[in-house]
Design brief:
The chain is mainly β. The chain is built from 1 helix and 17 strands. The protein has one domain. The protein has a 17-stranded mixed β-sheet that branches. A hairpin with a 2-residue loop joins strand 15 and strand 16. 37% of the residues are buried.
Length: 289
Amino acid sequence: MSHRGRVVTLIGAIIATGAAPAAAQTWRTLTMSRPMHGESTLTVDVQYGAGRFHLAPGGGRTLYRVEMSYDEERFTPIREYDAEASVVRLGARGRDGGGVRVNFGDRRRGRQPAAFDLTLSPDVPLSLNLELGAVESEVELGGLALRRLTYRTGASSSTVRFSRANPVACDDLRLEAGAAEMRVVSIANANCAHLSFRGGVGQVNLDFSGDWRRSLDAEVEVSIGSLTLGLPRDVGVAIHVNRFLASFAATGFTKRGQTYYTSNYNTARYRLSLQVSATIGGIDVNWIE
């Protein structure tokens, strides 16, 4: 199935589940953590379908810590740790086997929303895989030793921040959003060589500010919606645009062939090369001093 087809299917599933009658809630709060035991790397797999999600760097000698509030009648916690492979799997799955059910009417009915709070050690290099559904997420990755990140979300409102520089080199940053509002802040602090973003329906803001330590190649695809690019003026930027029924504000660029360049592209210490594909909507640029 195409990316656009998956988006339509996801929206339909959310509408259907949102109309379901409310059921009684049996709430539990689960707290779990693991101390560090000399781990040299850690792979973190998170699967979380609905509610509020928060991730941030931790402290002390704790490898990871989770506090999760969930409806025991609807969800089963996921908590698996493979010490030999240095892999931890965390999250929640639906008890009915059909995935986590989504009901946006919970708050309007006075029902408590599910919540998932995760902290990770900044002292261990991480490979981080986040599979999120209909969530309100605040993800702070600044200061974590991040080697690679895969972030997938469905119908959501997401903010991903890199407030501090990544102390290790990151190979790959992959982001995918369905029907979503997504904001990624200070991407340069991620210290990644490659970024890819695939968006379905919604508003996307990609801010490339931060401590530039290497040049970056990025591929950005937005199906229906608006895309805002925050671009530092001291970085050489080249944008190749493939668009259909989508506008592009090209102020500050010179076009050569099908690619738009900033005047400092050949002389800047660091370069940002963007491949942008937009179907319906608009591409705007905010210049960052």
